[in-house]
Amino acid sequence: MPKTRQPLMGNYLLRTMPAESFAALYPHLKFLHLPANTVLAKAGQSVQCHVFLEGGLASAVPRSGDNRIVEAAHLGREAMIGHQALLAVDTSPYEICMQIGGSGWQIGGEALRSCIGTHQATMQLLLRFVHALELQIIHSVLANARYSVHQRLARWLLMTHDRLDRNDLPLTHELLATMLGVRRAGITDALHSIEGVGAIRATRGNVQVVSRPGLEAIAEGSYGVPEAEYERLIGVPLRRTRTAQVSAAR
Question: Are 151 and 188 contacting, i.e. CB atoms less than 8 angstroms apart?
């Protein structure tokens, strides 16, 4: 594997961990291309795959006893898949699947445990990530209970925009409906509403962010708290702060 400098790593956790920890981990990392629909973990099964995501978008999706699903968490370049190893748990409580294709760095469980066992600062960094992830899940519960569909959709689009380096988000109505746990017609109506105020442009299989400030205004308080906490704990901005404006004319 070619040598990669730590400051150039796309994954925020690899980029910010102590240099000696990165040096210990790096020989054990394997670069992976992760197409859309790649399953990284299955609910109730042993966690076999520890991956530091570098690009794309994965979703943590719990499944009820009667086979209903909804997204619990967004995971991208800020995340590590298989964090249960840090908590002495050997199974995943939900399925994790790539919704938008990307890439990541895989490491074996033994090598990961060896590193965090001898590098306390890295263990603390990864546990701070677990806390930030838990907060995101809690705020997803809050959003589902207290915010409208179009506000929740705006939050979802902002979180996706945070994790991708582009304004075009390859998202279908069906995917959005499944992830938000609403009917497809509800997603269509919400997209039309958000598009009507000039925040996005929706076409078949794609949602283009035209005005990020517009999306943030729609999302209101459903978005921002977990993102601010991640930045405070990890030291890397998760939110895309620059204004995303796209010309209406193509």
Answer: no
Query: What global pTM score does this model have?
Result: 0.93
Q: Which two tokens stand for residue 79?
A: 């995340």
pLDDT digits (tens, 9 = 90+) for 141-163: 999 999 999 999 999 999 999 99
In the chain, the domains with their CATH numbers are 6-142 (2.60.120.10), 147-234 (1.10.10.10)
Widest CA span in the chain: 56
